[in-house]
């Protein structure tokens, strides 16, 4: 513990050095962000917003030369913290969590350090991304994580916005179904669509735009989506921003309740109707008003009755996002640290994803870790990707637990057993919560051999995708039900020296509970971000 204290002290000193580098870069704008005591207050919300935009536009170039120095500091901190083993610490002291908090702190630093080390190309790209080198046009896709899909959620709505000198200007916002009505399907969809999604896929099994985020790699999915959306009238787009409902919740937790003209007030207060945040309940209520449209018999083209919002069930999303953005930029200075934390959390936990048409910008985004890519890794690899194919908004309630039992033989060969437990503790309501037809794809190292796959109602033959081997199957999870899958497989290589493992988190998921057992070593954690492990054998 004394040695660990010494390493923490050294890491802290390195952190202070890094902090001085950042402060030197932003010092000219300290008034804007409240670094100086007694700093001037903006005269209005509009002035505050413009100040914040100017801060971003002007400070990014100053941070680029500092990136190398920051990387060196982070590497030094990493070296110091690498000596600290959370397993040396008790789980609790006087009833208070110790080990789990230490693990969380080290995880958070690791996630942040990877971003810092890959920050220079991204910082160099930022001026172009925020429109300082010419106006940019972005397609914003709203992915409903309560209806989980491979890249984060069902694509429920879209917006188009321009960005110039850091200032967003919304152009339009609409229901994805309106865009789909202009699109002629041409790409074959997977066989699970007519089996589970059913509906239109039974007669014509070709992708609709709303289901085109089927590839777990966000970049791969968005390349296809963008190319096909052009056929439905989407013009020149510089990039795509994918966001889910958790981003709204994270920001509103800091901002507090807000009003959206014409739509009412929104907050993160838990409401009994869904046992979820009020903003989520209102979004789902607004979008899911169903019923037949009744046309006049005597007056062609006249609608006698139609359910609310029938012509654009998702038109609320654009105004809500615009209000949240305006409120975020106009918040008092004392809330900035919390807002920065909420934004960083949303990015690290993959509730915000970016794709850029420019190859150099996309490479910078991927390296920075915000592109939702399925990555290459020299060692063991695991990525569990689930898709809700017709289960309403059941993912509002469904939880997932993953147990890994890793057995390493004397010759270094590895056999793994995964146990995946899905639970839906809530009752059927026919609106949000229903039977969940879930399709799961488990991505493991390329060349892995399947020993057994139990618990799924239907399994598929092994196949390769994204330079991985894929173990896939489907099952129905009922309200107040439990489904347990057991998957045993052998890795295609033998371990020498250290056993290394990368677990990637699916965008849109909250924090699934994982456990990892290797010999006598056991780790339990919530998978909030991608995590890398290394164990000596």
- Classify the beta-strand content into a percent band: 25-35%
Task: Report how far the terminal alpha carbons are from each other.
Answer: 24 Å
**Class of secondary structure makeup:** alpha+beta
Q: How many beta-strand elements?
A: 26
Main beta-sheet annotation: 7 strands, mixed
Helix % is 25-40%
- Number of alpha- plus pi-helical segments: 15
Question: Which residues sit in consecutive blocks of at least 5 with pLDDT less than 50?
Answer: 37-45, 289-294
Name the quaternary structure. Answer: single chain
The shape is globular
Radius of gyration: 24 Å
Look at the structure and give the mean pLDDT.
86
Layout of SSEs?
Elements: H1 2-26, H2 30-33, H3 45-63, H4 67-81, E1 92-93, E2 96-97, H5 99-117, H6 119-129, E3 136-144, E4 154-164, E5 167-175, H7 176-180, H8 192-197, H9 200-203, H10 218-229, E6 239-244, H11 245-255, E7 258-260, E8 264-266, E9 270-271, E10 276-277, H12 278-287, E11 294-295, E12 303-305, H13 317-329, H14 336-348, E13 352-356, H15 359-368, E14 380-388, E15 399-408, E16 413-424, E17 436-445, E18 449-454, E19 458-459, E20 463-465, E21 468-477, E22 481-494, E23 498-504, E24 513-518, E25 521-526, E26 531-536
Parallel strand pairs: 3-6, 14-23, 15-24
Antiparallel strand pairs: 1-2, 3-4, 4-5, 6-13, 7-8, 9-10, 11-12, 14-17, 15-16, 16-22, 17-21, 18-22, 19-21, 20-21, 23-26, 24-25
Helix pairs in contact: 1-4, 3-6, 4-5, 6-15, 11-13, 11-14
């Amino acid at each position: 513990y004394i040695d660990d204290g010494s390493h923490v002290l050294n890491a802290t000193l390195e952190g202070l050095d890094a902090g001085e580098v950042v402060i030197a870069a932003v010092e000219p704008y300290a008034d804007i962000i409240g670094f100086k005591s007694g700093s001037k207050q903006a005269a209005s919300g509009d002035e505050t917003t413009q100040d914040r935009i100017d801060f971003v536009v002007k400070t990014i170039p100053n941070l680029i030369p500092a990136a190398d120095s920051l990387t060196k500091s982070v590497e030094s901190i990493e070296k110091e913290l690498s000596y600290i083993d959370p397993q040396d610490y008790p789980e609790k002291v006087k009833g208070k969590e110790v080990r789990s908090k230490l693990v969380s702190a080290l995880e958070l630093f690791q996630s942040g350090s990877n971003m810092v080390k890959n920050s220079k190309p991204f910082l160099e790209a930022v001026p172009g991304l925020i429109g300082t080198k010419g106006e940019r046009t972005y397609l914003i896709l709203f992915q409903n994580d309560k209806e989980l899909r491979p890249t984060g959620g069902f694509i429920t709505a879209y917006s188009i916005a321009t960005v110039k000198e850091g200032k967003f200007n919304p152009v339009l916002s609409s229901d994805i179904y309106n865009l789909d009505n202009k699109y002629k399907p041409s790409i074959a969809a997977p066989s699970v669509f007519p089996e589970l999604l059913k509906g239109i896929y039974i007669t014509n099994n070709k992708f609709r735009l709303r289901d085109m985020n089927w590839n777990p790699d966000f970049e791969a999915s968005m390349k296809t989506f963008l190319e096909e959306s052009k056929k439905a009238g989407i013009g020149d787009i510089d990039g795509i921003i994918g966001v889910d409902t958790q981003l709204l919740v994270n920001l509103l937790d800091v901002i507090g309740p807000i009003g959206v003209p014409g739509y009412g007030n929104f907050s993160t207060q838990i409401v009994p109707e869904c046992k979820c945040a009020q903003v989520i309940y209102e979004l789902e209520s607004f979008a899911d008003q169903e019923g037949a449209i009744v046309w006049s018999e005597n007056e062609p083209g006249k609608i006698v009755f139609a359910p609310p919002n029938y012509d654009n069930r998702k038109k609320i999303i654009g105004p809500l996002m615009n209000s949240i953005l305006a409120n975020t930029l106009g918040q008092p200075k004392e809330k900035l640290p919390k807002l920065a934390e909420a934004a960083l959390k949303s990015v690290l936990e993959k509730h915000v994803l970016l794709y850029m048409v420019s190859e150099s910008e996309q490479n910078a985004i991927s390296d920075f870790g915000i592109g939702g890519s399925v990555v290459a890794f020299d060692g063991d690899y695991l990525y569990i990707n689930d898709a809700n194919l017709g289960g309403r908004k059941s993912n509002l309630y469904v939880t997932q637990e993953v147990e890994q039992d890793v057995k390493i033989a004397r010759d270094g060969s590895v056999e793994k057993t995964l146990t995946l437990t899905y639970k839906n503790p809530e009752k059927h309501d026919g609106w949000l919560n229903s039977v969940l037809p879930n399709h799961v794809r488990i991505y493991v190292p390329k060349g892995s051999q399947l020993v057994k796959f139990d618990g799924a109602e239907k399994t598929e033959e092994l196949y390769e995708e994204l330079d991985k081997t894929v173990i896939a199957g489907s099952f129905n999870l009922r309200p107040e039900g439990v489904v347990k899958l057991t998957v045993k497989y052998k890795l295609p290589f033998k371990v020498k020296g250290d056993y290394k493992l990368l677990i990637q988190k699916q965008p849109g998921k909250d924090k699934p509970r994982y456990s990892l057992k290797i010999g006598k070593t056991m780790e339990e954690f919530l998978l909030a971000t991608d995590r890398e492990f290394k164990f000596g054998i």
